[in-house]
Amino acid sequence: MSLGVSSLNVRVGRLLCAGLIIVIAPHVFAESDSPEQASEIQQDLYLDVELNQSVQPQIGHFLQRGQQLYIDRASLDSFAIHADAPQMLIDQATYIALDQINGLSYQYDNLNQKISIQVPVELLSGQNQYGYQALPAASINPLQEKKGLLLNYTAFAQQNDDVFSFNGWNELRYFGLFNGVLSLSGNYQYRDHVATDGQILDTYWEKDFPNQLLRLRLGDAQSDALTWTRSTRLSGLSISKNFALQPYTVTTPLMSFKGQVTLPSQIDLIINGIKQSSQNVVPGQFDIQTIPSITGAGNAQMVITNINGQQQVQSFSLYRANHLLAQGLNDWSLNLGYPKLNYGLSSFDYANDPAFSGNYRYGLSNTFTVETHAELTEQLQQAGLGTVYQLGKRAGQINVSYAYSHTSEQQGQLLGFGYSWNSALLSLNYNGLRQFGQFNDIASLNDATFASQSDQFYMGLNTKFGQFGGSYIQQEYIDQASNRFVLLNWSYILPRRMNLSLSYSRDLLNKENSYYLSLNLPWAKRNSATLTAQRSNDQNQMSLNVLHSVDQDQGGLGWQALANHTEQYSQFQGQLDYLGRYGLAQFNVQHTESDQQNNTSAYASVSGGLVILKDTVLAKRLGNGSFAVVSTDQVADVPVRLENRLIGKTNRKGYLLLDYLNPYQHNSVAVDTLDLPINLKIETTQQDTVPRQSSGVFIRFPMYQVKSVQLQVVDLQGNNLSVGTSVWQEKPNEQLQPTTIVAHDGMVYLDNVKNNTLYIGDQLKQCRVKLPDLETLNGYSDLGQIVCQ
After folding, report:
1. pTM of the model
2. What pLDDT, on the 0 to 100 scale, is given for residue 29?
3. CATH for 41-124 (3.10.20.410, 3.30.470.20, 3.40.50.620, 3.20.20.60)
């Protein structure tokens, strides 16, 4: 009995101990876990991010540990958030706790896997926006480039009483020679009882390297000039950096407009009352850079509109200086050769000694450009340094230059100074040069005298009473007559676009005055009449000129009538102009009556060009620029547009020449198909072309007559062929795909028939259908029922 009671007590004790263990154990183990062990429970999150109410395009990488959120450092940088907070290295990645970033608050949407973050604008880094369309350099299509010849010409014939004279000029240009241009130009004269005379003007080969911004010329060239140097004709080697080879490149300093927004906003930039650009910005600091659209002083407004519709306007004062290069850009040219003498008077007349001329310009900053120049011959050594500097934000621009020259007999210095300030109201400009000693350059060694002193000053004022202007010009020479003038002018725009102007000039050295009054009355389209009254050297002159100008795009007829009357004579003049696709023709008759005698003269002139490109010869207007020959595959009277301007229609052979294309830029050429026959197949109606300088391109618009047929195909028993049977227009093989398939009721439709034999069946076995002669088909034809044999 005692044993049973004892065993019962043991079992009860064990049950009690087990119960206590079950109840106490969870609490004991929970208290034994360290914080480090608990923090190991974590998960990666990839969330949509909204930053200051702006939805971000990229996903953010976060880490959740318990109730704490950490952001990956790479994601933080991608959102342009600056954070000075402790960093943690977890699984070889750097994280920052969101709660540790001062000023940052967030809301985490677990259901939609999205987080909204708010930060002060000071924590957001700046963003650059461009208030203009930054275009890449245009690429030349090699398929459009062709070799060809161009002959430009002008001819002028005059009959004055019993004397006849004739003058002409021409240029022969071979383009495409090693991707360059070979040019030969000259002029010639004829006069009654005088031998015919002619001269070669320029002979050169020129090639552009657009990707390198380089232009190379071998032969006759003219050196580039700075504002304080002179250009010289040198025949030899010329190489220069030329930004015109990439016209979309911005070389001038950009204007910068800075600000900050806390919400997504739209920034409208307005300069001198004209809207320049509209940009969307995300929260943070921004810097909008735009191409200057003004010269001189101006005003700008930046209108900021956030997503809530709230607006604020910030105003700025601007000034844009000329001749400045953007910071870091350079421009240069080098010429090495023999100076060309007596240009236009003799051919191949060169100096005995070679010469070198070079320029270099560099933008040290957006407000400071440095310039250097050097010239060198066997007799001359010359070097100079110049600067262009913008004074402050609105104080104008100055340019200073100094040059030194040395020859075996003479030496001298040239000092230059200039200042300009321009605004919508007032303009001030001054440029002066002073020579000390005997300064020389290449031109002066070849009898082109250099002024010992030069001054040019201009002041202009715009008011509601008109535009006022005044100038002072002087040039002094050591061994020839000097010049010194004062000029004053006023102009006023009257209603209906009429313009009234008055000017006065005085020769300070010869004590002579001149007065000029003019009234211009435009009416209708391209019509105007000008009345003038003039007094000079104590003589009065009245004139009336009535003009109808020519439409430069479409061409057509123009005319001019002029009458002059002075105290000594009366003069009447009439002129007709005709501008066509093939050039310009002018005819002029002039009659003069005086007390001594009457005189009548007449002249006629023509100008234009001839192009030989591929297999065609086309006449064109006179022009030194780029052009294109458009082909429509012998389809005549197709309207052709250049930049949406109607230029003309193709000739009977399907050609049209487009002139005045922009070199190294995109030119949109299109054909108008609205009035073309519906059976004409056209693969494309618009093409982009990028021509080289002074060269031609060939643009082909493939066109062909569509011959569509419909027929019902049956077998020898008269049964329709099965639906889906393959149809070929030539003998099939493994590589040749079917042209079409047989439709219901044995019907076959072909959009463009090329052969009069059809093959119907499969790759192993076919029957043939003979069609009528294709020459008899035109447009759409229903051939009826045909047996496939």
Report:
1. 0.79
2. 37
3. 3.10.20.410
